[in-house]
Amino acid sequence: MGEIRMNLVWSALMVLSAVGVLVLEKKKALWAFCGVILGALGLMFSLNAAFLATLQALFYTGLLTVLFALAAEFPPSKWPKRALIVRIAVAFTLVVSVFWIFRAWPILTWPEEAPLGGLGQAISAFSTKATYISAFLFTRYVLIFEVSAVILLAAMITVVLYLKNDDA
């Protein structure tokens, strides 16, 4: 239960950090990133979260912070190709975070009281009931999301570097 609550906490931190980077000047993005990481670490350890949950929080918070910093560097009017790539990566990461929020939200209540009606109950039953098969499958899906995010980030950096060299 504590780990599920922490998933919600770091998802909220990630979204807040993304909004924070959007309103900050690009020179302050590094300080915003450091502040978010320190805040995330403090919250994780004060609430006795698992080490893995902390790593996930750092990964997604850092990923979104870097992506939004890149988005500020490449405005659509000046670099349309780079801006599109960065915004696709941001959208993908936000989808992953929303997935985590909806995965964790129904588990905080009894299945009968789960939000989203039948869908919430289905998510709760799928992710928390004691069947090893569903737990194994769900873990695999989460792993696919996380690996996809890493691959997407690597591909985005590669393409941005290629476009930078191409413009020179």
Structural class computed from helices and strand pairing: mainly alpha
Strand content: under 5%
Number of domains: 1
| Number of alpha- plus pi-helical segments | 6
Mean pLDDT: 53
Quaternary structure: single chain
* Overall outline: globular
**SSE string:** HHHHHH
Radius of gyration: 18 Å
How would you describe what is shown here?
The model is unreliable at 46-51 and 104-143 (pLDDT under 50). The protein is globular and about 60 Å long. The protein has 168 residues and is mainly alpha-helical. The chain has one domain. Helix 1 runs antiparallel to helix 4 and helix 4 (80-104) packs antiparallel against helix 6 (132-167). The longest helix is centred in the C-terminal third of the chain and has 36 residues, at 132-167. It is 80% helix and 0% strand.
What characteristics describe this protein?
168 residues; 80% helix; globular; mainly alpha
Brief summary of the model shown:
Helix content is 80%, strand content 0%. The protein is mainly α.
